[in-house]
């Protein structure tokens, strides 16, 4: 990678106090965002082993499905001793279901509950959950209070800045949530109407920081490298940064951020061979959880981003996606290992990769 292509390393930041979710002190201020289809246990194990993660949160979990014992829902909440501290993000619109789901998770040893109030996807919103909760202030504050009072473990909320630009209600909600015992809020710096269009509104996140008395505000949105995390922290005053897509492209990002905070510099992300080893390790973790057929199917989406970041030729990525059993999977991987990257070297730093977000009108997602 050409030196001019590397993002500039910002100066070492001033000392900041640790981030605490109530009595739970996080080891770093850099959090793995809940990311539908990606932040399962195998990926959480990978980023934890690489280091630097303060808190990892599951894919969003349907409170009703959890209570009904849905196999798919329960799989989203699987954990292991190394996956600590660990938060489950729940969504729903019925206070009793949300309360019961939180209590069930607490009984199973979950360290923290996160309430999803930010998902813009239509199927979630139509059911009265996710970002649509921002349209019912009184009911929403009451629901959140019900969950907080039902458990002893910390409860946080993740939300967007508002439903649309006509009313950025996140500062109001954050104040009210702090009053009823929420320990932290994570803010994605866009409205529901925006989806992922446009740019993150850092000033909007700063208004949330200014609205609360003492709970940490976690900034989220479009952070894919150390320089962007530095910009988020400096411009918003937030206590920490939550990273989703940036961790898919670069699972080393949390370690890099902690190195930068401690020393003012950081190591490059893994090279081709490092990423291939990581791909295989994550797939092995998935095989420990489910059947061969299901593991291969589930891993296709994650494998796609690994191979893109490794700069594997499109034809070889396609062959990998067609694998239907372990023999075909292994054959595809061996070919990829022998071929190496189409751009760059297998032992050097690969070009940065951008992971696109959903496009088009948010109502059609």
Question: What is the global morphology?
Answer: globular
- Could you give the count of β-strands? 11
Q: Any idea of the CATH class of the largest domain?
A: Alpha Beta
Give the averaged pLDDT, no decimals.
94
Annotated CATH architecture of the largest domain: Alpha-Beta Barrel
Query: What class do helices, strands and sheet pairing give?
Result: alpha/beta
At the fourth level of CATH, the homologous superfamily of the largest domain is Aldolase class I
Query: What share of the residues lie within helices?
Result: 40-55%
Describe the 3D structure.
The protein is built from 15 helices and eleven strands. The protein is an alpha/beta fold and 365 residues long. It folds into two domains: 261 residues, TIM Barrel; 68 residues. Strands 3-4-6-7-8-9-10-11 form an eight-stranded parallel β-barrel, surrounded by six helices. The protein has a two-stranded antiparallel ribbon with strand order 1-2. The longest helix is centred in the last third of the chain and has 18 residues.
Summarize the SSE layout with pairings.
Elements: E1 20-21, E2 24-25, E3 30-32, H1 41-50, E4 55-57, E5 61-62, H2 63-68, H3 71-76, E6 86-91, H4 95-107, E7 112-117, H5 122-125, H6 137-150, E8 155-160, H7 170-179, E9 184-188, H8 202-211, E10 217-220, H9 226-236, E11 240-243, H10 245-249, H11 253-263, H12 272-289, H13 292-309, H14 314-322, H15 326-339
Parallel strand pairs: 3-4, 3-11, 4-6, 5-6, 6-7, 7-8, 8-9, 9-10, 10-11
Antiparallel strand pairs: 1-2
Pfam families: Dus
EC number: 1.3.1.-
Cofactor: FMN
